[in-house]
Write a sequence for this structure.
C-alpha cells in the first residue's frame, strides 16, 4: 500500500491529511495562524507561518507514517509572496481578501483596457488578484519593489522551500491576472505594459506534474524515511473541486469556506467573453472552470461568533464542542426569512457579481423584536443569497450540486442553500476537500490512476442528500429580491463612506 499527503494551505490554518491509494483518510494534522490587519481593509499573513504550520503538520503525520510516496499542495489563491535575491521574505503576503487595491484595479483597466484584460485573462480587472497587489507594492513601497527577485503564490512558496522548485501550475496562476489562459503562458502584453520582468515569476507546469522532491537536508527533520515527490498541486478551489469529484460540465461545487464559491467545469470552446463569472484553469489538464466568489462566507460567520457570541463560546468550552455547534442551534430557533432581517456579507468588498471593493457588510431590518437567533440565521441566509447570486449567473441547465467546506458541516446552512437554489444538494463522504484533491493529483503522477475520472469512480462516495423544501421557496425568493435591491440602494453610500 502506498500513502500520499495532501496539504491545504488555507486562510486560517494549514491542514495535512494522509491518504491511502483508495483515498481513505488515515491521519490528519492542522495548525492555525492569524490574519494580520495593520489597518482597516488590509489583510496580510506571514509566509513563514504557512511554512512552519506545514512542517509541524507533516512531522505529526510521519511519526506514524514515515514513508510517503507523493505530496500535493493546495493553497489560498491570489496571495502575493515576494522574495529577494537571497530568498528572504520582503514583506508580509497580501492575501486574497485584502481590500486596498481599488486604485490599482482602475490602473489596470486604464492601461490594458476593460475588454482587453478579459480577453487575455478571462476576467475583468479584479482588485483581489495578484497583479493589483504587485502594482500596489510598486506604487506604495518602491524600495521593496526594487528588491523583488521572485514572485510566488502561497502554496508555491511552501513548495519552493520544501523542494527548491520555483514553479506554479495553471489553476493557481490563472488567478494572478498575468496569465494568458488561452495560450497557457504569461502575457507579455500585460507584463510589458507595467514594465514587469517575466523572470521573477515561477515556471508553469500541469497540476499533476512532478515538480521536485523533498530536499535531502529536510528529510530527517520532517520524519521521512524515503524521498517523496511533490506535484504541482492546485489553487484551493480547483483542488477542492477535484476532491469532490467536480470534473464534468454538469457538476457544480458549492464551497462554504472563508470565502464562498460556486464552481463549474467548462471546456475551452465554451468560454465566452460576456460570461459574468470568473474564468480560471482547472487542475485537470486542458479543462477550465467558471467560478463565482463571495468574499465574506465563513468570514461572516466567524465575525458574528467573535463579536456577538461570547456566551456561546464559553458554553461550548464547558461542553467541549465547537462554538459553531451552539450558534447553529441558535440560528435554527429562528424562522426561515429571519423575521425580515437581511444581511449583506460584504465585509471585504465583493467579487461576484458586483466586483465592488467598496461594498460593506450590512444588517438591514432590525426591529424591537429582532432576536439574536434572527441575526444568526440572517448571516447564514445572507451568504446563501450571495451564493445564489453566483449560481444564477451559470448557464441554465440541470446540474448535480455538491457542497463542501467547513460551513457544509451545518445541516441548517445546507438546507438554506438547497432551498435558495431550489435543488437537492449532495455531500460526499470524504470531507477533506482540497487536501484530497491534491493527493489525487499525486496518485495520478504515481500512475495509480490514469486520470481524474478514473480516480473519481474509485474514490468519491455520496454521504447524504439535503432535499430542497418547496415551502420555503417563496420566503427566499422575497428575501433574495430584497437582498439584491439593498445592494443597489446602498452602492453609492458604500463608495463614499
Amino acid at each position: 500500500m502506498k500513502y500520499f499527503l495532501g496539504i491545504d494551505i488555507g486562510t486560517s490554518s494549514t491542514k495535512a491529511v494522509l491518504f491511502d491509494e483508495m483515498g481513505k483518510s488515515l491521519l490528519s494534522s492542522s495548525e492555525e495562524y492569524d490574519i494580520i490587519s495593520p489597518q482597516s481593509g488590509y489583510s496580510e499573513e506571514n509566509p513563514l507561518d504557512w511554512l512552519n504550520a506545514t512542517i509541524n503538520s507533516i512531522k505529526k503525520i510521519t511519526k506514524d507514517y514515515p514513508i510517503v510516496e507523493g505530496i500535493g499542495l493546495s493553497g489560498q489563491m491570489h496571495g502575493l509572496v515576494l522574495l529577494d535575491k537571497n530568498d528572504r521574505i520582503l514583506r508580509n503576503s497580501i492575501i486574497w481578501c485584502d481590500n486596498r487595491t481599488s486604485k490599482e484595479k482602475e490602473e489596470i483597466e486604464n492601461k490594458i483596457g476593460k475588454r482587453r484584460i478579459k480577453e487575455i485573462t478571462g476576467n475583468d480587472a479584479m482588485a483581489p488578484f495578484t497583479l493589483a497587489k504587485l502594482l500596489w507594492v510598486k506604487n506604495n513601497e518602491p524600495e521593496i519593489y526594487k528588491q523583488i527577485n521572485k514572485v510566488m503564490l502561497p502554496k508555491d512558496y511552501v513548495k519552493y522551500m520544501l523542494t527548491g522548485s520555483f514553479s506554479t501550475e495553471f489553476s493557481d496562476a490563472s488567478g494572478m491576472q498575468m496569465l494568458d489562459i488561452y495560450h497557457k503562458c504569461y502575457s507579455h502584453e500585460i507584463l510589458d505594459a507595467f514594465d514587469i520582468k517575466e523572470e521573477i515569476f515561477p515556471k508553469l507546469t500541469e497540476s499533476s506534474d512532478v515538480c521536485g522532491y523533498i530536499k535531502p537536508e529536510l528529510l530527517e527533520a520532517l520524519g521521512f524515511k524515503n524521498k517523496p515527490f511533490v506535484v504541482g498541486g492546485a489553487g484551493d478551489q480547483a483542488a477542492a473541486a477535484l476532491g469532490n469529484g467536480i470534473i464534468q460540465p454538469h457538476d457544480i461545487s458549492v464551497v462554504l469556506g472563508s470565502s464562498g464559491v460556486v464552481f463549474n467545469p467548462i471546456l475551452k470552446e465554451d468560454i465566452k467573453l460576456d460570461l459574468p463569472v470568473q474564468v480560471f484553469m482547472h487542475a485537470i489538464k486542458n479543462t477550465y472552470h467558471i467560478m463565482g466568489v463571495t468574499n465574506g462566507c465563513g468570514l461572516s460567520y466567524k465575525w458574528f461568533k467573535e463579536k456577538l457570541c461570547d456566551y456561546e463560546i464559553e458554553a461550548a468550552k464547558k461542553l467541549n464542542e465547537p462554538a459553531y455547534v451552539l450558534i447553529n442551534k441558535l440560528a435554527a430557533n429562528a424562522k426561515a426569512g429571519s423575521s425580515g432581517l437581511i444581511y449583506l456579507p460584504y465585509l471585504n468588498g465583493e467579487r461576484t457579481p458586483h466586483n465592488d471593493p467598496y461594498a460593506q457588510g450590512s444588517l438591514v431590518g432590525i426591529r424591537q423584536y429582532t432576536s439574536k437567533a434572527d441575526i444568526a440565521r440572517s448571516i447564514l441566509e445572507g451568504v446563501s443569497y450571495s451564493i445564489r447570486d453566483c449560481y444564477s449567473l451559470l448557464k441554465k441547465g440541470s446540474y448535480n450540486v455538491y457542497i463542501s467546506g467547513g460551513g457544509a458541516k451545518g445541516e441548517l446552512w445546507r438546507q438554506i442553500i438547497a432551498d435558495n437554489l431550489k435543488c437537492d444538494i449532495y455531500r460526499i463522504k470524504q470531507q477533506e476537500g482540497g487536501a484530497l484533491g491534491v493527493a489525487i493529483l499525486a496518485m495520478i503522477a504515481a500512475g495509480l490512476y490514469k486520470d481524474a475520472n478514473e480516480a473519481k469512480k474509485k474514490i468519491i462516495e455520496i454521504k447524504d442528500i439535503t432535499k430542497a423544501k418547496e415551502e420555503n421557496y417563496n420566503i427566499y425568493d422575497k428575501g433574495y429580491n430584497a437582498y439584491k435591491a439593498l445592494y443597489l440602494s446602498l452602492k453609492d453610500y458604500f463608495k463614499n463612506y
About this structure: The radius of gyration is 22 Å. The chain has a mean pLDDT of 95. The first strand starts at residue 4 and ends at 9. The longest helix spans residues 473-496.
